[in-house]
Design a protein that fits this description.
Oligomer: single chain
Number of helices: 5
Largest sheet: 13 strands, antiparallel
Distance between the termini: 60 Å
Number of strands: 13
Order of helices and strands: HHEEEEHHHEEEEEEEEE
Structural class: alpha+beta
Strand content: 35-45%
Helix content: 25-40%
Radius of gyration: 22 Å
Shape: globular
């Protein structure tokens, strides 16, 4: 009898799993991702970027890193450099960074309400345009619901994505997605991307033949829930080989982390960041 109950439970679990349409899950998650991206303007944060240059065996030859704080000035994000290669900026460099912010702030303070609104509207349109191509993801891929997993305490659907070779992208930036396959972990409660793993299956070119990324390059991306109201980037790692220009070969791993998210308030003052 226990065997029958176990079999029945397994069947019901499969039915419940298959009842979910992975394409619609992804479509909804992309729309929420767009909203999250726009809401980042309500936060300040600290980011750290590390580039590890690799040799032909994949071993590190050299490493460069930098850290900066993103602050909000009249609704617009601006960077203030904090560190280079693990060392705080010199007093002179810190002063230059502060002067640059002060000059920007003074310029923004002289804006009329109409000028300020025009600038902010332009900023929103640019942010939307930069990520508009992501809305094609739901149509560009064939999806498979692989199951469910718990990631960082969040119950998530695990969805594999393989490009549809017959699909004709409408947006120029979406063309590169035809050479990328991956797997998504989507939070079941909020339809947010908890994790993404992807790999290139063909050569991807950037700019006017300035850079080429070889097949086999990998991307790992994570998000975190902040202030119980929004999901924001946590960590991104890209690795692979390619070419800069016509001759220079490159092999590197780039890691970018975001932390210390703070809700921006109008009365906030620009002070040194806590690192």
């Amino acid at each position: 009898m226990r065997v029958y109950f176990a079999a029945a439970a397994a069947i019901l679990a499969c039915v419940g799993l298959n009842a979910q349409d992975p394409r619609e899950i992804v479509r909804k998650s992309v729309e929420l991702d767009q909203a999250n991206w726009l809401r980042m303007k309500d936060y300040t944060w600290i980011a750290r970027e590390t580039e590890r240059h690799l040799d032909s065996r994949g071993e590190m030859k050299s490493q460069d890193s930098r850290a900066w704080e993103t602050v909000i000035l009249y609704g617009e994000p601006h960077r203030r450099m904090l560190e280079r290669n693990g060392k705080p900026l010199s007093s002179e460099e810190q002063q230059k960074q502060q002067q640059k912010l002060d000059q920007t702030l003074a310029k923004l303070e002289r804006e009329t309400p109409a000028q300020s609104q025009l600038r902010l509207d332009k900023l929103v349109k640019e942010r939307q345009k930069d990520r508009e191509f992501l809305r094609e993801i739901a149509d560009l891929y064939d999806f498979r619901l692989d199951g469910e997993e718990t990631v960082d305490g969040h119950e998530a659907w695990v969805i594999s994505a393989v490009p549809r070779l017959d699909y004709q992208p409408k947006h120029r930036d979406a063309k590169a997605l035809l050479k990328i396959r991956g797997k998504l972990w989507v939070d079941k409660a909020e339809y947010q991307w908890v994790r993404l793993q992807a790999e290139t299956t063909g050569t991807i070119s950037y700019g006017l033949f300035l850079a080429r990324l070889n097949p086999g390059a990998k991307l790992f991306f994570e998000q975190a829930r902040v202030n119980d109201e929004v999901w924001l980037p946590k960590r991104e790692v890209t690795s692979g080989s390619g070419r800069l220009g016509l001759l220079k070969k490159i092999a590197l791993e780039q890691e970018l982390t975001w932390n210390n998210y703070r809700k921006f308030q109008v009365e906030s003052k620009i002070v040194p960041a806590e690192r």
